[in-house]
Structures are given as C-alpha cells and as structure tokens.
Sequence to fold (294 residues):
Amino acid sequence: MAAMQGATPPAWRHRSRWSLLRDVWGGWAQTRDRVTQLGQLLLAFLRPGLVRARLERLSALGHIDVIPTTAQILVAAHDQMFLGAIKETEMFYRSQGIPWVFHNLRRFLSGPATVLDPAGLFSPRDTIVHHVLQTFHRHPVYDLVLLRGFPDGPEVMERQAEQILAGTHPHQRALTSLIEDGAYHARVINQIRQFRADPFVASDPIPPGLVEDPALMLAMDQFKDLRGFTSYAARLPVGAAAAISAWSGVAFDATLGALLRLGPRATTVRVECCDPDLVARWMAPGGVAKGGES
Fold:
C-alpha cells in the first residue's frame, strides 16, 4: 500500500521508544499550544454555531453544496473514521512497519486535539495545520478546504510547512518524528502551494486496487474531500438520538467491549448515502469491486 502511494519509510522507525516519546513531549511552549488547541476544540463541540458559521463560509466560497445538521455531521464522522480512515491507516502502518498503538499514543501526546475530532470541522485552525504536518495524507485537499473556513488558514498552513523544511518549526522534533512517510514534507509543501494557487484543485484520485474491499474503496473516495463528506452527511436520515447511539457504541467498544474481548461491531459504509457516480465506480451487484474504472 505504501509503495502504491509513493511513500518512503520514515527515518525514525528503528529508534528507541524512549527517544521517540521524548520527541513528542516537548517543553512549556508545546504544552501551552496543546492546552490552547484542546480548549478551542471543546468550545466548538459546545457551540455548534461556530461550526455552522465555518460551513456557511465554505458554502459561500463554493466548496460544499449542502450544510448538514450537527447530528448528521457526527454520524458521518463516525462512518468516516471507522469505515474508512482507521481501516486504511492500519493497512498503511503495517506496510510501513509502524506499530499502531504506540504511534497513535505518540500522536495523542503531541497534540490531543488532532485525534479527538473525527471530521475536522470542530478543530481550530492550528490543530488542522498540526494534523496535516503530523500525519501522512495522500493529498490534504479535505484539510486545506477546512482551513479556508478561517480567514488566514491556507497562508498559515504554507508558512508552517516552510518552517518544517527549514527546521525552525516550534514543534519540529515532534512533527518530523511522527510523520509516517520520509518524503512527505517535501511533497506536501507543493500540494499546499498548488491549492493556494487554485483552491478548487481536485484531490488526487484513489489508486485502483489500493485495497481489496470495495466498500472501503468507496468510503475512501467518498470522504476524500469535504464536499463528499458533507454530501454524505446531508443524506443521512438521522437525528440526535442516532448520533448519541453511534458514539456511545464507540465508547462501549473501547471500554467494556474491549475488556470482554467482544471486538468492534460490524459496520459498513451506507451506500445509499454515497455519491451515485462513486457507487457506480467501485461497486458492482453483490458488492464486488469493479477495479476503479470511471
């Protein structure tokens, strides 16, 4: 999987775990940033109007077609994370020889807010920037569009990416110690500049045959950009009760379910809520992958 996406092994892979933990811990300035971003994230969860204002700005800019409700966002975020992002990331980590639990612990320690918002819509500007610089993205168009919800988002993104390449970023040790692709930072700066020149640049296509599961290919394609995510969310026939149920199930699976070794409940992307052209691209009758033809 890594080779298909042009990823190279991370330079830190064979270092000791103790030194890798030291990298992400940082000092007072890094701790202050963590606390600030976490507080801003919690504020957005408590004030849905902040999220709606960002979505309205993105709609006015032409990046999304519909504005889903908070309940729809939360259920779609559940589907995006557990039906696409986590499965794909687990496969990518295996192909790169990266330990799943330890690496995600380091990501959490480096920036708790970056792993607590499954959709990115509740995150403050600097959390989104940190996430893009911390974690491998095939093409970060989804996050770059999110940053257009802030007046100076893309500009700050480019400036901090330049700091990484210059070795002067305030979180330099953590970000270079976390990125899962050794060539990522040199590549992502060009993608950021391309986006700033054309904010409507298309996301890189999903490589055909990246995974064998057609539903996972469909999920990755549907959620590869913010327009796809919000369109999926707006089609969900759900309310507050469904959002509470979805995330209560996650809490149960991570606590009592894990202790009882029940394993996560089986789920799949809601095909009827996906874009019809993507369903036609990836799914054949009976759920068989079609090889990615357009």
